[in-house]
């Protein structure tokens, strides 16, 4: 990489870090970005001259020289995030500080022969809407495997997609950089930039809902595995003679505690009818129905034991739990915690588990974070699309009056 390109990358990283984490001193930036204080001083001088940064108040001192804080001036830089589910698409536009500026949700039929065309139309309409900011790129999160984030070829059992070239289709239609990733990995990036994982370098993000997934941030970097398929917690085998999973195997965790499995359990004992779903099961549990509560308690126990295995193996500093399933978490929690703590090895029993309130647009915010995180893409996971995002940000700097 040429010195000029290195400067562009570090300058972008400074902007993204201040946008995501708020004001910081030059020394804070040097530590966070792992570059020399002299380089930070040089680059922030350029950004101040460009009008993108401003000097704020000084920090208090413990005897040394007070540090001058730096803040972001421009808030017009944004990224679009898209969450693709089997039956709907959620879209958000997110500022460089992680704030959701606008959002919308549309029905979607993933198994339709026209699914990809419909998705492209939805994203294009959202991107072209009046009032959109200076969009750096589009991030897409979906349930499935994406071997290379910057190429975006998708395999997904939940969507019934096989080798769908989604990244190419969207790039051709939008003329914008597009990165595509597994939805839980995208959420993990959002946690790293904006959520409770910000203060940790080793974070395990686990989602429960239609499926069960996990994303691992290790030493500050996302672990994707050989072909982007790391974190398939839902397909850990837990019962040899268990129910058939959508992946084709039997006894997967997802086939036992995913929302479809819980609804099937409720229907099997005639607790709910054929046209009723997880909302009705949760409502019965909320009303005190013992059978409904037992269904969730059993799921909590199974999740606790499976997650204990993951924590024992991966040794995270913190576990963040979220997804549609946490809406009924009060019915999972007791059996989950007992099963988790009893199966952890002694040195890991204090690992904190935090449960975040579920919001549908949080998944789409995670997809947008894929774009905002490209300046930190030291491993080149975003490929050529990461370079294009950086170039768009540099161009926006140079275009400012």
Question: Please, what is the average pLDDT?
Answer: 87
Distinct helical segment count: 13
Give the uncertain stretches in residue-range form: 1-7
**CATH homologous superfamily annotation of the largest domain:** ATPase, nucleotide binding domain
State the shape.
Answer: globular
Indicate the CATH architecture of the largest domain: 2-Layer Sandwich
Please outline the major beta sheet.
5 strands, mixed
Strand sequence of the main sheet, in spatial order? 6-5-4-7-11
Distance between the termini: 29 Å
The residue fraction in helices comes out at 40-55%
What share of the residues does DSSP label as strand, in percent? Answer: 15-25%
String of helices and strands: HEHHEEEEEHEEEEHEHEEEHHHHEHEHH
Q: Give the CATH topology of the largest domain.
A: Nucleotidyltransferase, domain 5
Structural class: alpha/beta
Number of domains: 3
Number of strands: 16
Pfam families: HTH_24, ROK
Organism: Microbacterium salsuginis
Protein name: ROK family protein
Family: Belongs to the ROK (NagC/XylR) family.
